[in-house]
Amino acid sequence: QIEHFSLGTQEDHRPALKAFGVENPDEPKILWVVGERDRKYVSVLHDLGESEVPGEYWMCSDAGHRVPWDNPVDFAARVRSFLT
């Protein structure tokens, strides 16, 4: 049901994200993608701080919570760049 995916009911994954890569530093890094208009996840990104979670951070312009649908061209280019 769609209400299970509501931002208001999603579990807080920040503790797990902080632990990501700590025990296994050779694990692949992650690409953080946040839409500039997604206030909740821009705030989460700032709360975690780039130093707390390994990975690359990218704030997509002209996008909200659904970055791949809001700005598919920039999203595809950034993911392609991260993977190569």
Brief descriptors of the model:
single chain, 84 residues, alpha+beta, two-stranded parallel ribbon, 4 helices, 14% strand, globular
Describe it.
- By secondary structure, the chain is an alpha+beta fold.
- The chain has a two-stranded parallel ribbon.
- Helix 2 links the parallel strand 1 and strand 2.
- The longest helix has 12 residues.
- The protein is globular and about 35 Å long.
- It starts with 13 loop residues before the first helix and ends with a helix.
- 8% of the residues are buried.
- The mean pLDDT is 80.
The major beta sheet can be summarized as: 2 strands, parallel
- State the end-to-end distance: 36 Å
Written as H for each helix and E for each strand, in order along the chain, the element string is HEHEHH
Helix content estimate: 25-40%
- Total strands: the figure is 2
Q: Structural class, please?
A: alpha+beta
Q: Proportion of β residues? A: 5-15%
The number of helical segments is: 4
Low-confidence stretches: none
Mean pLDDT: 80
> What would the principal axes of the Cα set say about the shape?
globular
- Radius of gyration, in Å, reads 14 Å
Q: How are the strands of the biggest sheet laid out side by side? A: 1-2
Task: Record the SSE blueprint.
Layout: H1 14-19, E1 30-35, H2 39-48, E2 55-60, H3 67-70, H4 72-83
Parallel strand pairs: 1-2
Quick rundown:
The protein is an alpha+beta fold.
